[in-house]
Model the fold of this input.
Amino acid sequence: MKKIQMVDLKSQYEKIKDTVNASIQEVLDTNTYINGPEVQKFQKNLEEYLGVKHVIPCANGTDALQIAMMGLGLKPGDEVITADFTFAATVETIALLQLTPVLVDVDMYNMNIDIDALRKAITPKTKAIIPVHLFGRATNMEAIMHIANEHNLLVIEDNAQAIGANCKFSDGSKRKAGTIGHVGATSFFPSKNLGCYGDGGAIFTNDDALAHTLRGIANHGMYERYHHDVVGVNSRLDSIQAAVLNVKLPMLDQYGKARQDAARKYSLAFEGHKNIVAPSICDICDCHVFHQYTLRIIGADRNGLMQHLLDKGIPCAIYYPIPLHLQKAYLDVRYKEEDFPVTNQLVKEVLSLPMHTELDDEQIKFITDSVLEFLG
Ligand SMILES: *Cc1c(COP(=O)(O)O)cnc(C)c1O
Done:
């Protein structure tokens, strides 16, 4: 059996090696390392893929979130609501801009921001919401946009983990996650669903004026060469990374299917087990692209299971072990433990299994057999 990896980038690369190498070679041959034609091509292709008017490439997903908030004109003291159960980059950028993060609990079923908790957290100071499409599952954007419209709030989608996923609406329509709020932000970190071979990110919007503002902020606040109209940052997607992404973007749907196939096989093996809550898989809407395959282990020794898998050479991980409201950097006297029952429970129960585009049946069987062997 091939060695099991949490994310097997090497096996994926082997299959696209010639095209990727040629695409990178082109950048080397033309010496267009910054803002080369590859970047423009990628921008256009991603706009088309997502069905969004503007894609603004930048240096990483964290910058994408920061630039989005800068472009929306949020001011120190403005409250920004986001999920307690996510990667820290979301809350970090809020705090960095001296905005006030307001963490709220998540939903037990989809692990995304809880709609009632979100509603309750709104105050007269609330200016924006950052929903996160966690682990690849599109969150309920229809409900979030409804609340945002009611209260005149801005919505920044953190789509670092769910590029390609569809959000469903009650009229039957579907739109790509990240393109529904006022702005969307994503990451091309190597292990993300659309990963390059270094750091990369992008911002999406359908608003022409905002797109113009965001482009300038990402480029030192310059709208005309050497005229700095606003305080900006330096955040670019390298041409070499765009060259990799130009090869991988056309594969994204196929990669998503491979992840969903692996998830389906895992879930089939775990079906009905009393100690396992497996993520649900919808066959028609692609609302979950499985950035992670995350189980809840209930009434059993989650940490023991994790050690058992590691001992057998199966990588696995706890995303995330500590709720953000308990992180030293983000403590706030306003938070009460009873406001976070779901996150507090999830951090004790979640376990993410290997998930990538190259898992084969033998590996999946070994992983599921090993989980079931421990749980009995
Ligand atoms: C990865 C990630 C980010 C940050 O992306 P980087 O490119 O690593 O800066 C932000 N939010 C979430 C939810 C992420 O998973």
